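Working notes for the structural subgroup meeting. M.R. asked for a predicted model of this chain before we commit to crystallization trials. I am recording the input and output together here so anyone reviewing the notebook later can reproduce the run.

Input as submitted:
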Amino acid sequence: MPSEALPKNRDVWRIAAPMILSNISVPLLGMVDTGVTGHLDDAVYLAAVAIGSTIFGFLYAGFNFLRMGTTGITAQRFGANDGDGLKVALGQALIAALAISLALILLQIPIATLSMQLLGPAPDITNFANEYFYIRIWSAPATLANYALIGWFIGLQNARVPLYIVLAINLTNIVLDLFFVLVLGMKVDGVAAASVIAEYSGLAVGGIFAFSYLKRHSGHMLLSHLTTLKEYKAFFAVNAHLLVRTMALMFTFASITAAGARLGGMVLAANAVLINLLNLMSFALDGFAHAAEALVGKAVGAKDRAALRAAVTLALRWSLYVSVLFSLFFLVAGRPLVRLLTDLPAVIDLSFVYLPWLVLLPLVAVWSYLYDGVFVGATRAREMRDIMLISTFLVFVPAWYAFSFLGNHGLWLALTLFLASRGIGMHYFYRTRVLTEIPA
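Returned structure, recorded in token form:
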């Protein structure tokens, strides 16, 4: 490939910048949900929405493979100039999203019952949380279809449409939250209804852009590839591994919460504050991971090792720059940020004790975040799964038990080793598998 065709800095930022902007809108929505319910006449409404949001956050996170898997498959077919394959990739992802969402709707009663038993809220909170759940579950078809559309457009090297979809969802949700609750006097039902309508508004936006693309570009939506189960082999092969990988990741962070709770309520609260700040960093680094997904997938599809090297190098370089800035930011502004998130003196004092871990973690986590994007683009989901399982059950869990005598410091050390293990493992597989399997 001529050097002028290799990925450049502007190609990374063309994808990363819109994804960072869309990520930033997510916590704003959470703040509005909390604000409108937090100002109602009873705290039970705020608690019910928190319970409902937790359930759907866990539920939908498990199906995020629809986004990741679709990105990698689409990016490779884009790099190979496979017009038919691009359209089939979207069709298969949307059909899978519809099938999963219908299953969730049909199983809504047992899902809600089991969720309430596991979370164990008080009876009055349970009643309103159920009300929220049984309304919001109808957003499932739109939510999962949006995952597929966002993944497809990122694979097409187009991050503007995902930004439009996410902004449509979050802005609609915010406006309807305020209208339903503050103007119409609705409560939990208003917050849930706002979420449902918002997801379908995002789907409408994504659908319009997808229809326009399909109409303008060559290729055919081969019906046999959509209606024959064996044609989904590649789709399911990638996404089954991604599902297991996501479950292991969720297990790790759930274990951190559970272990923190066993160390005491104040420790649990302090960890929650610091993890929220850690998530702030992920909004930026995820943008570069998305850029890596698209550019790496395109290079792999074109079987171009030089483009693959350039894509990884550029995305990693910008990720490292940003991670250093976050470490410095947490070093300088960590204490004011903690005070911004809580005014409880005991929680503030404990957060300060463990704040040095937050300064260190951006430099450790950056590798696993970026290589997640590389492996998604290369559709190396099996390796992602294996590395995540090893990091979770052979590094994180043993490390937590080995260093539990250090208390919460031991927990943060186990998290650090978990992230380091993922980064090292994926770097090794990138050098020995992903890179070497493309002809020089």
